[in-house]
Amino acid sequence: MSWLVIGAGGMFGTDLVHRLRAHGHEVAALTRADLDVCSPDAVRRALRGHRPATVVNCAAWTAVDDAETHEDAALAVNGTAVGAVAAACADVDATLVQISTDYVFDGRGDRPYPEDAVPAPVSAYGRTKLVGERAVLDTGRGYVVRTAWLYGAHGSSFVRTMTRLAAERDTVQVVDDQHGQPTWTGDLAEQIIALASSDAPPGVYHGTNAGQTTWYGLAREVFTLLGLDPDRVQPTTTDRFPRPAPRPAYSVLGHARWAEAGLSPMRHWREALHAAWPDLR
After folding, report:
1. pLDDT tens-digit profile of 111-164?
2. Which InterPro entries match (predicted)?
């Protein structure tokens, strides 16, 4: 199977390309410098030139706070461009895997959101990502994979920030009232490879590691892996760190659709973090 990864220079795109090549797949990796995803003509030419069987669109406006004041610019990348990618995939009969986010939900729940839960984004970032989701789903083909709290060997992440702060400060304050699922890019890459290689029906799938914790709980686990006293991490609340974009208080995602498609969901977040740790230092 031949693959085309758009946005291949980011944290997840880099790991996905590495995993695909490790599995022996033919991969074309296009970074932001290689492809202007906001140009429908450029997208169409790229897909016609490569003729992939599967396209994974990792390109996104991910500056959540900046999207509040630049929603049109974020929409161009997260929404309009996704529609162009979906149309180009249909043109060459390629399967599209679109990466989306937990921010399409309002975060006011108290139990895992199933894949068919009604989205209700409360931030500009979430609204623009939802437009991209609908552009894919309206085609009746392809996959939307929602993920959250990503960390990996490349690029910036909360895990890397905690590792740095552990060396710089005696204590760190971390919010303990936002609940979610830390997700390793390596596990997400393997899950997407399995999904696109299967006969799973098109639609929405939740690509997060299992279990749940808070940012505070994750920070304590990072300190433990560093061999440091986890009590150096002190709990605090979101209102102590006001940000332009609201953060979901609860964005735990359910994984029922994997079993329905005959695929195993991703392992527990703590197990994944321990497996990833050698590559995160």
Report:
1. 999 999 999 999 999 999 999 999 999 999 999 999 999 999 999 999 999 999
2. dTDP_dehydrorham_reduct, NAD(P)-bd_dom_sf, RmlD-like-bd
Query: What are the domain boundaries of the chain?
Result: 2-157+181-211+253-267
Domain 2-157+181-211+253-267 - what CATH class? Answer: alpha beta
Q: Is 139 helix (H, G, I), strand (E, B) or coil?
A: coil
| Whether 63 contacts 119, CB under 8 Å | no
- Three-state secondary structure call for residue 88: helix
Distance of CA 128 to the CA centre of its chain: 14
In three-state secondary structure terms, 145 is strand
Query: How far is Cα of residue 9 from the mean position of the Cα atoms in its chain?
Result: 14
Residues with catalytic roles: 125
Structure tokens at 148: 């959250």
> Can you tell me the distance from the alpha carbon of 38 to that of 76, in angstroms, rounded to the nearest whole number?
6
